[in-house]
Write a structure and sequence with these properties.
Radius of gyration: 24 Å
Strand content: 15-25%
Number of strands: 11
């Protein structure tokens, strides 16, 4: 299974397999049916592929109208490394200050966890010739160091591409994901920013990296985290933000939920009920103590009031 994907399936008498595919908490309807023979129709004539490519109708596009995309760079493909590029893993010890102290060897200490990742070195990096470096910060949801989605690993691809051009990079598993320990679901964006800061500080201690030219690349929620780190660390060399949020998180979440439901064929009335519930739950989260029984009661009531329309 790719990344953290899960499959939920059930069979039926029509020899179809129906269920859902879940990755990063996103459920996608899944339906498989038996095919006796593979079609010999050229893929270029497939109306679905044509629609996805923006050609519309069922006829294959002409050679003149079909743009030839550029060849992607070889670094990162099939997990191969460019010539001279090398990778090594790193681990950073972190302290979880949210949890109560525990007694170990007769002493009370804060619980610890670790952030694990990979550093990709360009061929020209050395203590005598330090190179710039970038720390990659992933988007929302539990992400591994490569920000894996399906078979695509965008952070790994970027790391290899940059290394072939003389820049080192560090990418890491979110806390509670992959080889990183700790708890993901109970953590906040601010705490994720602390993890990113720890990785950035680690990068500046490494021989072969120019400590004055270490920046951050943040994708999606990482586009919030990167500026948070830079606001507290004036030495951050640069920021690169990929698809950063331009709206408050509450608005983004509501619009994402509505858009996903629309794509899945949910009717407008049901989507509106879901949006209303989402906004109500967000208000409760901001106004009330999440550990209070009153909060749980308010959440149950909000769901029950809208249950029939969800």
């Amino acid at each position: 299974m790719p990344g953290n994907a899960k499959y939920f399936v059930q069979s039926d008498p029509t020899e179809r397999i129906r269920g859902r595919f879940v990755q990063s908490l996103l459920p996608i309807p899944l339906e498989l049916s038996r095919v006796e023979e593979l079609s010999d129709r050229p893929l270029a004539d497939d109306p679905l592929l044509l629609a996805l490519k923006g050609h519309g109708g069922s006829a294959a596009p002409s050679a003149s109208s079909r743009a030839t995309p550029p060849e992607p760079p070889k670094p990162g493909i099939n997990n191969s490394l460019p010539d001279g590029v090398r990778e090594e893993n790193f681990t950073i010890a972190r302290v979880d200050y949210r949890k109560p102290k525990v007694k170990q060897d007769g002493r009370w200490t804060q619980p610890k966890f670790q952030i694990s990742g990979t550093i990709t070195w360009p061929a020209n990096a050395s203590a005598d010739s330090p190179v710039p470096a970038v720390v990659m910060v992933s988007g929302s949801g539990p992400q591994d160091r490569d920000e894996t989605i399906g078979s695509h690993k965008p952070f790994r691809f970027l790391a290899h591409w940059l290394a072939a051009r003389g820049m080192a990079s560090l990418r890491y598993d979110d806390r509670g994901v992959g080889e990183s320990t700790g708890e993901f679901m109970e953590s906040t964006t601010s705490e994720f920013a602390e993890d990113a800061t720890a990785v950035w500080e680690h990068a500046r201690t490494l021989d072969g990296i120019d400590r004055g030219r270490v920046g951050l690349l943040g994708h999606s929620e990482g586009g919030i985290i990167g500026p948070m780190v830079a606001a507290n660390r004036s030495e951050v060399g640069f920021l690169v933000l990929l698809a950063p949020p331009g709206l408050p998180g509450s608005e983004i979440l509501s619009s994402q939920i509505d858009r996903i439901a629309e794509v899945q064929g949910v009717d407008a009335k049901s989507r509106q009920a879901t949006t209303d519930l989402q906004r109500k739950l967000q208000r409760l989260a901001l106004e009330l103590d999440p550990s209070d029984e009153k909060t749980k009661g308010e959440v149950r009531q909000a769901i029950l009031e809208r249950w029939d329309s969800l």
